[in-house]
Amino acid sequence: MMAPAIRGGLVMSADDETGGIKAVVFDVGRVLIQWDLRALYAKLIDDAGHLDWFCSTVVTEEWHFQHDAGRALADMVAERKAEFPGHDELIDAYAVRFLETIPGAVPGTYEIVRELNDRDLPLFAITNFGSELWREFRAGEPLLDLFGDIVVSGDEKLVKPDARIFELAARRFGYPPQAMLFIDDNAANVAAAAALGWHVHHFADAARLRADLEARGLL
């Protein structure tokens, strides 16, 4: 556990040092892991112009968001293949080769997670991630074993920045919003959490996150 600090001869409690933060809640995509549809499709489409068209028109982040929100993968894929005939194999690749859209970890954040865990800070996550794809990803990611609980949008059929997913998370995690720091790369998600009373960090990179955590007395 974090030991009390001494400032000016006064013993400061852990709550004084951290502003009352007792748990840290991470987003997953683009905070812990990189995510880019083009990381997969650049392997499958040689023509740069066609690649740009495909990733902005057919298999897009906006379309992918439907699975995050709880829509079944098979229904999405079948509908998309009917809408864009002649692209069946490429559309199927989204479902069967999804892990190739995750090139690796975001540099530096896994180390931060481990350091927070070493300081006995409870760790949680709220992620916009479809249920089927989440199960595939989660099975191969041992870092997530350090998290006490993870709220997955596809399971709950609630997505950030909807206030209800943050309210659900607070109930599940067992801490009031004022006792949790929420970290996300999406400004709308950060604003939604802040409006509900969470401490927030708008993620840009691990160096700035580390500096913020140190300033808060969490690292």
Task: Itemize the secondary structure elements and their pairings.
Layout: E1 5-7, E2 10-12, H1 14-18, E3 23-26, H2 37-44, H3 48-57, H4 61-68, H5 73-83, H6 88-96, H7 109-118, E4 123-127, H8 131-139, E5 149-152, H9 153-156, H10 163-173, E6 180-184, H11 187-195, E7 199-202, H12 206-215
Parallel strand pairs: 3-4, 3-6, 4-5, 6-7
Antiparallel strand pairs: 1-2
Helix pairs in contact: 5-6
Summarize the structure.
The chain is α/β, with parallel strands linked by helices and 219 residues long. Helix content is 47%, strand content 13%.
Q: What is the CATH H-level superfamily of the largest domain?
A: HAD superfamily/HAD-like
**Strand residues, percent:** 5-15%
* CATH topology group of the largest domain: Rossmann fold
Rg, Å, rounded:
19 Å
Structural account:
The protein has 219 residues and is α/β, with parallel strands linked by helices. It folds into two domains: 5-34 and 105-215, Rossmann fold (3-Layer(aba) Sandwich), CATH 3.40.50; 37-101. 47% of the residues lie in helices and 13% in strands. It contains twelve helices and seven strands. It has helices at residues 14-18, 37-44, 48-57, 61-68, 73-83, 88-96, 109-118, 131-139, 153-156, 163-173, 187-195, 206-215; strands at 5-7, 10-12, 23-26, 123-127, 149-152, 180-184, 199-202. The strands form two sheets. A five-stranded parallel beta sheet has the order 5-4-3-6-7, with helices on both faces. Helix 5 packs antiparallel against helix 6. The longest helix is centred in the middle third of the chain and has 11 residues, at 73-83. It is elongated and about 60 Å long. The N and C termini lie close together (12 Å).
